[in-house]
Structure formats: C-alpha cells, structure tokens
C-alpha cells in the first residue's frame, strides 16, 4: 500500500486507479549515471518513450524528504541539475526522509517504492550486482536482495558489465529472482549485446513476458522479481575489444584511487564514457531506450 511518506503525482494516481499501464523509472541513472546536461534531455526522452508506447511514466526520486512517484518537469530538472542530489539505495530512504534530504533512487530503492505503490513494471539500464574483487570488498549491490523481496518485473540490459557477471547470475539464482532473455538465449552485457553467459528461459513478445507474470500471480505465495534481459541491438553495442581495454583501465584506476562503496559504479561509468569518447554513453542510452519501450509494452500486455 502507498505509505504516508510517498506522494503519487495526480497522473500516476489516476492511472493506477483506472488500470492504465504504468512504468516506474529510476533516477540514479539520471543524477549519477549520465553526464550533465545531456541527462535532463534523456530523462524527458525516456518519459516520452513510455507515453508513446501507451503507458504512464513514473520517475521516482526523493525531494525535500518526500518520496515522489511521478515527477513533474520541475522535479526532473532538479534531479538532473542539482549536484547535491544524493544517491539513495533502499536503506537510505528512511534517513533521507527524516532529514528532509533530496536524492535519486537506485534500482533497490526504486523497486521498493514502485512495489509499495502498486507499480509492477520497472525499467532501467543495467542492474547492479556482484563487483569484481568481491572476495576482498564484499561489494554486492543491494539491488539483488531487494529484487528477491519485492516482486516487480524489471526490464534491463542485464547487469552492468563492470561487474562480475557470472557471479551476479549465480546470486540471482540463489535469491530466487527469475531471469528471462528477450529475443535472446544469452544474458546481455549492458554495453554489449551478449555477456557470453546463457539464459535458461527465452521470451519473444511482450505478451509472453506478461504470461510469465500472470503465472507468477497464479502460483501465489511470496513473489520474487522477474528480470527481463533485453540486449542492446548489435549495431548499437560498444565495440567489444574497446570495451574490454577501457574497462581494464577503469578498474585499475578505481583500485589505485581507492574508490569504494556507492562511488564505485558512477566512477567506472564516467571513466568508460570519457575513455571511449562517448561511445559507451551511446551504447548505454541505446540500451535504456530499448528497455523503457519494452517495459511499456509489457505493462500494456499485463494490464
Ligand atoms: N543503469 C544504468 N546506469 C546507472 C544505474 C543503472 O544504465 O547508473 C544505477 C542504478 O540506479 C543501480 C545503480 O541501482 O546504478 C547500482 O549502484 P551500486 O552498484 O552502487 O548498487
Ligand atoms: Mn556497492
């Protein structure tokens, strides 16, 4: 149920009440995953894409100590432009509310808020997961555990390729999170069309994804989330050789500079963007665009 800390926009409230499909969008990708000022254009474009595919977008963030589901343009502007926006995972929500802070929500916080608002379908670029070097740092994104608890359908281009992808897939299995490829037999590689890892289940239409969701409902009991792994098109992917070379440099730099905790993911994404002269950014955007459109179609097929 919507809690007393959450404000739904009038448009989102109406859509939920009337059964119009709604797609939740996270805001960390806007505030901390994409360079300014392009991020604001992207935030608006993603909402437009959801609308064009027949659903209502609900970008989620925390503004002045209130959880907001569905941002007016002024809210999108704040998220994109204000450098003091914090990065809020699920566990950060309560302290942010109590102190009146403002911040962008990660997949973990967004999935939690979306589920409690009654929004089933959610789109992002790439999920967080198990970081390389986990044995030393124990760095595993809270995205994974939250997905095991909240029962949303998240459309993504797999997990970020800066991570340990096989280990992340293993954790998704342990946590009971469903994974289906979308028009692929391979788990996508975020910037790359394939991570090289296989997926056990494949879907080819939004209706087939919706059928999996209905089967989850029919099974009853606590529902884990469903990851719909939607690869970037081959022609939009980052050159795999360039990806591997630049990622190796970026991981080395993070290590040398002692980057840790919440800063790791934004640091690596930024170095990839800079050191590929923007090519990784274009691949990231192509992935997010495709995910947002597919999420809207899935939401419509399920509605
Ligand atoms: N997808 C993108 N760019 C991003 C993210 C996802 O294309 O920046 C964000 C999501 O908000 C995700 C977060 O939850 O990165 C993971 O951060 P961490 O590894 O610190 O949990
Ligand atoms: Mn982390």
UniProtKB/TrEMBL annotation:
<keyword id="KW-0326">Glycosidase</keyword>
<protein>
    <recommendedName>
        <fullName>Pseudouridine-5'-phosphate glycosidase</fullName>
        <ecNumber>4.2.1.70</ecNumber>
    </recommendedName>
</protein>
<keyword id="KW-0456">Lyase</keyword>
<dbReference type="InterPro" id="IPR022830">
    <property type="entry name" value="Indigdn_synthA-like"/>
</dbReference>
<dbReference type="GO" id="GO:0016798">
    <property type="term" value="F:hydrolase activity, acting on glycosyl bonds"/>
</dbReference>
<feature type="active site" description="Nucleophile">
    <location>
        <position position="160"/>
    </location>
</feature>
<keyword id="KW-0479">Metal-binding</keyword>
<keyword id="KW-0464">Manganese</keyword>
<feature type="binding site">
    <location>
        <position position="139"/>
    </location>
    <ligand>
        <name>Mn(2+)</name>
    </ligand>
</feature>
<feature type="binding site">
    <location>
        <position position="87"/>
    </location>
    <ligand>
        <name>substrate</name>
    </ligand>
</feature>
<feature type="binding site">
    <location>
        <position position="107"/>
    </location>
    <ligand>
        <name>substrate</name>
    </ligand>
</feature>
<keyword id="KW-0378">Hydrolase</keyword>
<feature type="active site" description="Proton donor">
    <location>
        <position position="26"/>
    </location>
</feature>
<dbReference type="InterPro" id="IPR007342">
    <property type="entry name" value="PsuG"/>
</dbReference>
<feature type="binding site">
    <location>
        <begin position="141"/>
        <end position="143"/>
    </location>
    <ligand>
        <name>substrate</name>
    </ligand>
</feature>
<comment type="function">
    <text>Catalyzes the reversible cleavage of pseudouridine 5'-phosphate (PsiMP) to ribose 5-phosphate and uracil. Functions biologically in the cleavage direction, as part of a pseudouridine degradation pathway.</text>
</comment>
<comment type="similarity">
    <text>Belongs to the pseudouridine-5'-phosphate glycosidase family.</text>
</comment>
<comment type="subunit">
    <text>Homotrimer.</text>
</comment>
<dbReference type="Pfam" id="PF04227">
    <property type="entry name" value="Indigoidine_A"/>
</dbReference>
């Amino acid at each position: 149920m919507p809690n007393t800390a959450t404000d739904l926009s009038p448009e989102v409230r109406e859509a939920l009440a009337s059964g119009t499909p709604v797609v939740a969008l996270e805001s960390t990708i806007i505030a901390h995953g994409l360079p300014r000022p392009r991020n604001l254009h992207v935030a608006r474009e993603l909402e437009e894409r959801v609308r064009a595919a027949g659903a209502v977008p609900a970008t989620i963030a925390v503004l002045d100590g209130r959880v907001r589901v569905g941002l007016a343009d002024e809210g999108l502007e704040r998220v994109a432009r204000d450098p003091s926006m914090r990065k809020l995972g699920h566990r950060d929500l309560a302290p942010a509310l109590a102190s009146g802070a403002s911040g962008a929500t990660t997949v973990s916080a967004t999935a939690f808020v979306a589920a409690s608002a009654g929004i089933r379908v959610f789109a992002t670029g790439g999920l967080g997961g198990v970081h390389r070097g986990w044995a030393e740092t124990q760095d595993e994104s809270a995205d994974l555990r939250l997905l095991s608890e909240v029962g949303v359908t998240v459309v993504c281009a797999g997990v970020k390729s800066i991570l340990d992808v096989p280990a992340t897939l293993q954790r998704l299995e342990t946590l009971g999170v469903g994974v289906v490829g979308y028009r692929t037999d391979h788990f996508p590689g975020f910037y790359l069309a394939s991570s090289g890892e296989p997926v056990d289940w494949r879907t080819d239409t939004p209706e087939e994804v919706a059928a999996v969701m209905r089967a989850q409902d029919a099974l009853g009991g606590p529902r884990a989330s469903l990851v719909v792994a939607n690869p970037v098109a081959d022609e939009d992917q980052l050159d795999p050789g360039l990806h591997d070379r630049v990622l190796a440099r970026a991981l080395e730099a993070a290590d040398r500079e002692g980057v840790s905790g919440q800063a790791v993911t934004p640091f690596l994404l930024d170095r990839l963007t800079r050191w590929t002269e923007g090519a990784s950014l274009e691949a990231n955007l192509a992935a997010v665009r495709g995910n947002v459109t597919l999420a809207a179609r899935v939401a419509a097929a399920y509605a």
